[in-house]
Design a protein that fits this description.
By secondary structure, this protein is mainly α. The protein is built from 3 helices and 2 strands; from the N terminus they run αββαα. It has one domain (10-91). The chain has a two-stranded parallel sheet with strand order 1-2.
Length: 95
């Protein structure tokens, strides 16, 4: 598992893609930048497997005030966001 902090642009995705190991399967929503993934190993859509990704996103939103714009803990620092996400993933055993 890996992540990249940024917008949903192709440039942000390519930074992440450069670090991804050769996975047996990639699961994503059907967003256009994921066309870079190998089609024979890419599962796109809103099915059960994509819901697991959305579940992780929900946990991050719940655990990190830094992701909520209207809280005192909100952070614009990319370094702080990246480090905070990594800590939550480690603590919850996602890595």
């Amino acid at each position: 598992m890996d992540f990249e902090v940024g917008d949903r642009s192709e440039a942000t995705f390519l930074k992440l893609y450069a670090r991804l190991l050769e996975a047996q399967r990639y699961v994503s929503d059907a967003y256009r930048v994921y066309e870079w993934l190998p089609q024979n190993r890419h599962v796109a859509g809103k099915g059960l497997e994509a819901n697991r990704n959305e579940g992780l996103h929900s946990v991050l939103l719940d655990k990190l005030n830094r992701l909520h714009r209207r809280t005192k803990g909100y952070s614009k620092s990319v370094t702080m966001l990246r480090d905070s996400i990594a800590l939550v993933c480690l603590r919850l055993g996602f890595v």
